Amino acid sequence: MIISRRTLLLFILAAIVLSPHSSMLAGSDPEPAPIVERQIDFYDLLLPQTDGARLSLRQYSSGKQLVIVSFIAGWCKNSNENGHVVKRLYDKYRDRGLGVVAVAEYSDEQEMEEHINRIGINYPVMIETDDRGARKKSIHFKYRQMVGDKRKWGTPFYIILDARDILPAGVNQPLARRVHTVAGEIIESEAEQFISSRLAAAPSK
User: Fold this and answer.
1) Could you state, in order of their start, the residue ranges of all structural domains in the chain?
2) Global pTM?
3) Which of 11, 14, 80, 129 sits a CA distance of 20 to 30 A from 44?
4) Looking at the predicted structure, is the pLDDT value of residue 9 above 60?
5) 59 burial type by CB count under 10 A (0-12 exposed, 13-18 middle, 19+ buried)
6) d(C-alpha 52, C-alpha 48), whole Å
7) pLDDT per position as a tens digit, 173-202
8) Angle CA(146)–CA(152)–CA(155) in degrees, nearest 5?
9) For the segment 138-152, what is each residue's pLDDT rounded down to a tens digit?
């Protein structure tokens, strides 16, 4: 049987649309977003890391002046491209009090391993869920909804914590009631200015 070029092209397009990674292809256009101050109740995260050990965001934030919580997907092109920006920021400012925690969403172990190795991540990586079917049940989705993020997958998504906004631990007490968010790719020049000004204003130890 001879298959025409048109028929072959239709088969290829159908395979792409039905692929589990098609959502990545559809959402790979650049989506830069500004840093925005938000008044929301943001709670501590207690999640397993890639090595299985559990980490508390409150625990990690101790002794740091500013922490970027980076919600990412290993298969997401924008997460991978913007991940290099976050890595540069971390390497430049970590000795001055910047921390970064990545939170993996909807990605299996291999996808996250490739993401970590591609970027050279040297900060903690928590795992919320590897199930793409759990998108609307995730913590990630909850906070995105709070800030009006209409993207389907919504990665990357950032929550930035200033140590001065972290509240004392208590029953049902949020970690902070004021945060800054980025509902898309963080803009390096804006992030540089934001981080340097916040760290400069932080009280010395």
Assistant:
1) 30-200
2) 0.86
3) 80
4) no
5) exposed
6) 5
7) 999 999 999 999 999 999 999 999 999 987
8) 80
9) 999 999 999 999 999
Task: At 87, list the tokens.
Answer: 């890595």
Rounded Cα distance between 10 and 127, Å, is 37
Report the DSSP beta bridge partners of residue 193. none
Q: In what order do the strands lie in the sheet with 125-129?
A: 36-38, 179-182, 157-162, 66-72, 98-105, 125-129
Kindly provide the residue ranges of all beta strands, DSSP E only, lying in the chain, ordered along the sequence: 32-33, 36-38, 46-48, 54-56, 66-72, 98-105, 125-129, 157-162, 179-182, 185-186
Contact between 64 and 99 under an 8 Å Cβ cutoff? The reply is yes
For 111-162, the pLDDT digits (tens) are 999 999 999 999 999 999 999 999 999 999 999 999 999 999 999 999 999 9
CATH topology of domain 30-200: Glutaredoxin (3.40.30)
Any residues with CB less than 8 A from the CB of 99 and at least 6 apart, and which? 60, 61, 64, 66, 67, 68, 90, 123
DSSP state of 64: -
Selected residue with higher pLDDT from 20 and 96:
96
Question: Which pLDDT band holds residue 20 (cuts at 50, 70, 90)?
Answer: very low
φ, ψ at 92 (rounded to 5°):
-75, -35
Give the list of residues 6+ apart from residue 155 with CB closer than 8 angstroms, or none: 71, 72, 73, 76, 78, 79, 105, 106, 140
